[in-house]
């Protein structure tokens, strides 16, 4: 084979190899961008699910705390006094309720029960 033909073939193959290599690199970049975007979307959805789960748990705990505050309040008001144990439980439940951003529904009940005289059950 003539060296000029070999030189011409090599000269033609160089830019072709560069073009093919560039196409492969760009295709991989697009795939990587798509994978990264899919991962970010998956993380966003997981975070949203965690927030919804936390809200449900928080609301459930607030509901249980509010219910216990109401139970203690109603029992103590009916009797006209509160025991030291009930006072301690009421204080702990109310602090937790407020810590979870509970609204003022339980505040009046808490205050009324805490204002009752302390009297141990007989």
Structure characterization notes:
The chain is mostly helical and 122 residues long. It has one domain. It has three helices and no strands. The longest helix has 77 residues, at 3-79. The chain is rod-shaped, with a radius of gyration of 36 Å. The model has no long low-confidence stretch (mean pLDDT 90). The protein has helices at residues 3-79, 84-99, 105-114.
Helix segment tally: 3
Give the distance, in angstroms, between the N- and C-terminal Cα atoms: 116 Å
Total strand segments = 0
What pattern of helices and strands is seen along the backbone?
HHH
Structural class: mainly alpha
Oligomeric state of the chains present here: single chain
Q: Helical residue percent?
A: over 70%
Radius of gyration: 36 Å
Q: Which ranges are low-confidence, i.e. pLDDT below 50, for 5 or more consecutive residues? A: none
What proportion of the residues form beta strands (DSSP E)? under 5%
Largest sheet: none
Average pLDDT confidence is 90
What does the overall shape look like?
A: rod-shaped
Whole-number count of domains: 1
Set out the fold topology.
Layout: H1 3-79, H2 84-99, H3 105-114
Helix pairs in contact: 1-2, 1-3, 2-3
In short:
By secondary structure, this protein is mainly α.
């Amino acid at each position: 084979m003539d060296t000029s033909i070999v030189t011409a073939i090599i000269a033609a193959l160089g830019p072709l190899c560069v073009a093919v290599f560039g196409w492969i690199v760009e295709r991989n970049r697009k795939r990587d961008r798509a994978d990264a975007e899919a991962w970010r979307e998956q993380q966003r959805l997981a975070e949203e699910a965690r927030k919804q789960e936390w809200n449900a748990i928080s609301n459930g705990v607030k509901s249980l705390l509010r219910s216990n505050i109401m139970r203690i309040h109603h029992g103590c008001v009916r009797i006209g006094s509160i025991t030291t144990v009930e006072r301690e439980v009421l204080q702990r439940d109310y602090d937790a309720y407020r810590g979870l951003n509970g609204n003022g529904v339980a505040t009046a009940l808490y205050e009324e029960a805490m204002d009752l005289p302390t009297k141990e059950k007989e």
